[in-house]
Amino acid sequence: MDKQIVQLFINIVGEKNVKQSTAQLLAYSYDATANFQALPDIVLSPRNTKEVSEIIKICNEYKIPVVPRGSGSNLAAGTVPNQGGVVLLFNHMNKIIDFDKENLTITVQPGMITADICSFVEKENLFYPPDPSSMKISTIGGNVSENSGGLRGLKYGVTKDYVKGLTAVLPNGEIVQTGGKLAKDVAGYDLTSLLVGSEGTLAVITEITLKLIPLPKYKMTSIAYFESLEAAAKTVSSIIAHKIIPVTLEFLDRKTIDAVEQFMKIGLSTDVEAMLIFEQDGDLSQVEQDIHVMTEIAVENGATFTKIANDEEEAEQLKTARRVALSALSRLRPTTILEDATVPRSELAEMVKRIDRIAEKYNLTIATFGHAGDGNLHPTCLTDVRDTEELKRVEEAFEEIFEEALSLGGTITGEHGIGEMKAPYLEWKVGEPGIQLMKGIKAAFDPNNIMNPGKMFAKNTKKRVVLQNVY
Amino acid sequence: MSINLAMQKSFEKHVEEELLLDCMRCGFCLSSCPTYIHTEQDESQSPRGRIALMKAIRDGKIQWDSSVEDSFNLCLGCRACEPACPAGVQYGALIEQTRDAVQEVKPQKKFEKTVRNVTFNHLFADKKDLNKAVKLVRFYQKSGLQKVTRKIGFLNLFPTFMSDMEKALPAVPRKVEKLEPIKSSKVKVAFFTGCLMESLFKEINDKTIELIKLLGADVIIPTGQQCCGALHAHSGELQKGLRNAKTNVEAFDSDEYDYIVNNAGGCGAFLSEYEKHLKSDSKYKEKAQRFSNKMVDISSLLVKLGLIDYLNTLPTSDSKVVATYQDSCHLRNVNKVYEQPRRLIQSLPGIQYKEMMKADSCCGSAGIYNLLQPEMAGKILETKMDYVREVNPTYIVTSNPGCLMQMKAGIHKDKLTSTIQAVHIVEIIYEQIKQVSKNLTTYEAITH
């Protein structure tokens, strides 16, 4: 990067907040996505919205790419600086700005760790429900930019359902405020919703106002094992049909269970085809009733084993399999690729079966677990990045999985985002007019294309796989 | 050959690719890493960043320079990232291999070289030398020279941290009174005495023996044992470490012993990993396996031999003092022992146990790290002392000589010596038992 431009950045944030050593550039060249890596030219840590604005003005003037980055736990290569430029960190912007108990909101800077927000508000008997698996290390800025989901999505929704207002720096350096603490606000286009999930391609978010709700008093957990996928899927549908919305309803397939058993030796039966985990929270009587009804429904639908946890400790034990699922799987092969194809929950069993057939067709190991309640599955492919031939098959298999998910009325990503990885497939979901509209929005915000370029929109859309109707 | 190419070749030779590929870069390790936290979340000072750097050097993707070297040097080797890792990455092995690879190519800096030379080639290579050095320290303490040099402050010329460490040197050992066995048992325990423990902390070793004998077991100190070799292995001198490992495996190879006990967390972790390190050595493989299988830390052994049952029979004191526990990183992260020491402290009659925040996070001692990286070690210790002050204990209990000295240094530095004392777990247990038996004797003397 030009020395004079570097000096301009130093003038804004100070020498201490500029990273450009070999080690530092390499350390910001990746996120949690396998096989994507590119070096930035410089890494900056602004201390406030004004400094962000000054940085962005320079980037816009010199057409330097800007990649805002939280903790880099992204699973779609959304924070890999694939065109170099500036990686923007929020390690100094990690504080609570305002905690409003009367309006039940909290306003925070984007660098704050999600789990820290949760534990802070829970001390006040309030609740911020979105709980992505990475919440102990992910930043709220990252969650908002990706519109992250989590285990509690079925009952409580996802990140967007809790973002009330934002402060953001536009690509021309201007600062906008959207929304606020209000429950009702219809003044103009809903820019808050537009920025949530925009993956850093439209603006840099610098302040976030979140909605809080009262903390549920009780929580209970139970599990059920099934000898067939259909039985598990029927249980899920039947629970919802009984008008019960559990806080989590998690699913593990046989391959995942096998991997967990191999890894942990916790005595999971290997002839089990599927496992469901139910959790409910709320008032004691309602929680007890819901958990018992859900467990009964599982038995009615052919569960071979059920158990309701007596206390928190036992609940943790019952959830071991789900908690270690990814760990257990990741140990099978050098590379783990975690996907998040999502279908309507009524199509759960069908989707899992199709994934199994695709794995067989391409001779791959793909295990599936995920959030059964909202149809958000995590087909996880165990492979080896060094084997280019196998990697080709992995790509083809995932293309078919996307196609199958779409044909069942689903989507190519439920909660991980598009990033660079899925950009070639976005058009499959939103269609040509959809893509054109999105590109128009992007151009209106960012005519010089400096904000996280190369993400969301691919140069070329992948040719859609035409599937023979073999099923 | 350029240093870049030489380094790449050395990484190819020493650092296993399979182990590098275990990392899926999820970042779950970040919040567990003390250097990441103390560098305002600099990813190049995180486990994930370091693994990416190892891989990039090995693959020839980046040039070797001082920033890369600093990243590896600044790692404490506390291995707090291992329990945090969902993919089971063997970070401890990776950083050891990396340091071996760097050591082979890169000559070290002068200060580091001196410390290394004194540490590895003299002090820890031969117990006799260490004993000589200790005698000098003792002379220094006894003769009053210590007070004089402290007054003159000539050690202040060194990095401030070293002068803090100097203040933390343990007092001259006193004779340890015997404890009457409370029961008889056929258990035979071989004691791995450790070099620092047997020299600077001799009194703690004597108390260790007394506590085991209290529970009826027999204690044997096999001759010919050497330093465990952990410090060597953690600093890119794995071969020197393994030389010591082989000697120890021989010295302890007897069916007679039921357990091999140690009272230093840092040693214990490496001792339990002899098995892993010697797995492809046909001569030592089985002996190392037997050795590592019998290896146990003092807290776990005392719990196994029934100390908690005994402590529960003692009358509780009305005036309890507060104690907190600072985990030994290696005892916790490698040997997964953290409940036993806490349970023991909680069972002590005169103690009220209070857990401090982040007790599981490194204190900054990390072998000879505090000598090589005084600035970072100082920052980490400062944070640790903030958490200590929140609990405001009478005792900070530790399980490793390095942690013990580091906590003592922290207490000195913060001028808390009149209220807080750092002790080894064996000391607090021994003293509490001694105290109760004294009270009982007095009570009996009065009533009879």
TrEMBL record, chain A:
Highest taxon of source: Bacteria
GO molecular function terms attached to this record: FAD binding; oxidoreductase activity
Cofactor(s) listed in the protein's UniProt record: FAD
Record keywords: FAD, Flavoprotein, Oxidoreductase
Coiled coil regions in record: none
Annotated Pfam families: FAD-oxidase_C (PF02913), FAD_binding_4 (PF01565)
Domain FAD-binding PCMH-type: from-to ranges: 36-215
InterPro entries, alphabetized: FAD-bd_oxidored_4_C, FAD-bd_PCMH, FAD-bd_PCMH-like_sf, FAD-bd_PCMH_sub2, FAD-linked_Oxase-like_C, FAD-linked_OxidoTrans_Type4, Oxid_FAD_bind_N, Vanillyl_alc_oxidase_C-sub2
Family: Belongs to the FAD-binding oxidoreductase/transferase type 4 family.
PANTHER family: GLYCOLATE OXIDASE SUBUNIT GLCD (PTHR42934)
Protein name, UniProt field: Glycolate oxidase
Protein species of origin: Ureibacillus acetophenoni
From TrEMBL, chain B:
GO molecular function, one term: glycolate dehydrogenase activity
Cofactor: [4Fe-4S] cluster
Broad EC category: oxidoreductase
Domain 4Fe-4S ferredoxin-type as annotated: residue spans: 11-43, 64-89
EC number(s) per entry: 1.1.99.14
Cofactor note: Binds 2 [4Fe-4S] clusters.
Record InterPro entries: 4Fe4S_Fe-S-bd (IPR017896), 4Fe4S_Fe_S_CS (IPR017900), Cys_rich_dom (IPR004017), Glc_ox_4Fe-4S (IPR012257), Helical_ferredxn (IPR009051)
SUPFAM superfamilies: alpha-helical ferredoxin
Superkingdom field: Bacteria
Keywords, in A-Z order: 4Fe-4S, Electron transport, Iron, Iron-sulfur, Metal-binding, Repeat, Transport
Reactions the enzyme catalyzes: (R)-lactate + A = pyruvate + AH2; glycolate + A = glyoxylate + AH2
Keyword Oxidoreductase: no
One family name in Pfam for this protein: Fer4_8
Function: Component of a complex that catalyzes the oxidation of glycolate to glyoxylate.
Protein name: Glycolate oxidase iron-sulfur subunit
Source organism per UniProt: Ureibacillus acetophenoni
Phylogenetic lineage: Bacteria, Bacillati, Bacillota, Bacilli, Bacillales
